[in-house]
Design goal:
Layout lengths: L3 E6 L5 H10 L3 E7 L3 H11 L2 E2 L2 H6 L3 E6 L6 H10 L3 E4 L7 H7 L8 E3 L7 H11 L6 E9 L9 H4 L1 H18 L5 E7 L4 H5 L5 E7 L5 E7 L7 E8 L3 E4 L8 E4 L2 E4 L6 H4 L1 H15 L9 H20 L3 E2 L1
Parallel strand pairs: 1-2, 1-4, 2-3, 4-5, 5-6, 7-10
Antiparallel strand pairs: 7-11, 8-9, 8-15, 9-10, 11-12, 13-14
GO molecular function, one term: oxidoreductase activity
Pfam families: GFO_IDH_MocA, GFO_IDH_MocA_C3
InterPro entries: Gfo/Idh/MocA-like_OxRdtase_N, GFO_IDH_MocA-like_dom, Myo_inos_IolG, NAD(P)-bd_dom_sf
Length: 328
């Protein structure tokens, strides 16, 4: 496979995930690293044989076919617009932006663009297998979903003010996953939330524990369970209930070895964080982006999916504020 040059914008937490995946992919070559922090950019570039560059010069290079946007959330939309206007294929971490009005106003510029949004759960092999079996009718007609997304521990308080809050930063993954599995758009949202994990999160105006109920026009239900602290690892589960049975995607453990003796049962813990749990999903996502870049696939999670998830996230916030369901 011919290797196409790409630029990475952002060498932070998500850049550390996507940059190496791009550098190691047989169809991609990481040519530039762009980051306002010179040391971070230089470290990433040096490790993967890339060059440090300014954004304008990277986008002006006709040899750059794609751009990976892993910058801070408030920069996602601006960087995506710049890359699309330069004619590049774009992979952008979620969310597109925290401001729904800005996202909607920009949407026409993305018509026809090769744009993949970072909803990585769609590329998890366990969740993909569940979806295939669901679509094959193994559980009959889908009636309800239960999604569990529990972080192992709360983020540092300094993260909260710029995160967009629990629903736009965290639950948005589950809202996209629900849309992907339900097969129709939710028409009603009800959320209830509390601050039970860290009082500082509440002082900063956010919540850390929530339950959300989605309802579709045909009556399908989806319950989403979120917390910033599980205390036992990165808890990621799906239960899909149908007219003939159920499908479940359980937690993934560090290994499959189980000890059974007179002391009881001992098994390996579940994965401790998102980077380990979704390692295969992130690799699959970048492989899909490579296929999009090479003209062999159409993006499975596009701009419209980002808009739809953001609409639901804002409905969750409104429901918490009013204590009532929000009809869409």
């Amino acid at each position: 496979m011919e290797r196409i040059d790409v630029a990475l914008i952002g060498a932070g937490r998500m850049g550390q995930v996507h940059g190496p995946n791009a550098a190691n992919h047989p169809g991609l070559r990481l040519k530039y690293v762009v980051d306002p922090r010179p040391d971070a950019a230089a470290a990433m570039a040096s490790r993967w044989g890339a060059q440090v560059a300014e954004l304008d010069s990277a986008l002006a290079d006709p040899g750059i076919g794609g751009v990976l946007i892993c910058s801070s959330t408030d920069q996602h939309l601006g960087h995506a617009l710049a890359a699309v206007r330069a004619g590049k294929a774009v992979f952008c971490e979620k969310p597109i932006d925290l401001d729904l009005d800005k996202v909607r106003k920009a949407e026409p510029e993305f018509a026809g663009a090769r744009f993949l949004l970072g909803f990585n759960r769609r590329f998890d092999p366990h969740f993909q297998a569940l979806k295939r079996r669901l679509e094959a009718g193994e559980a009959g007609n889908l009636e309800s979903l239960q999604l569990v997304n529990h972080d192992p521990a709360a983020p540092p308080p300094g993260f909260i003010p710029t995160s967009g809050g629990l629903f736009k930063d965290f639950t948005i993954h589950d809202l996209d996953l629900a849309r992907w599995l339900l097969g129709e758009e939710p028409s009603e949202v009800f959320s209830s939330a509390s601050c039970l994990v860290d009082p500082e999160i509440g002082r900063l105006g956010d919540v850390d524990t929530a339950r959300t109920l989605l309802k579709t026009p045909t009556g399908k239900l989806c319950v989403i369970s979120n917390t910033r602290r599980s205390g036992y690892g990165y808890d990621q589960r799906i239960e899909a209930y149908g007219s003939k049975g159920m499908l479940t995607a359980a937690n993934v453990h560090a290994n499959t070895v189980v000890t059974l003796n007179e002391q009881g049962v001992d098994a390996a813990p579940i994965h401790p964080n998102f980077a380990e749990r979704y390692r295969a999903a992130y690799a699959g996502q970048l492989d899909h982006f490579a296929q999009v870049l090479h003209g062999r696939a159409t993006a499975q999670a596009g701009y419209a999916d980002g808009v739809a998830a953001l609409v639901l996230a804002e409905a969750c916030q409104e429901s918490v504020r009013t204590g009532a369901p929000v009809r869409l």
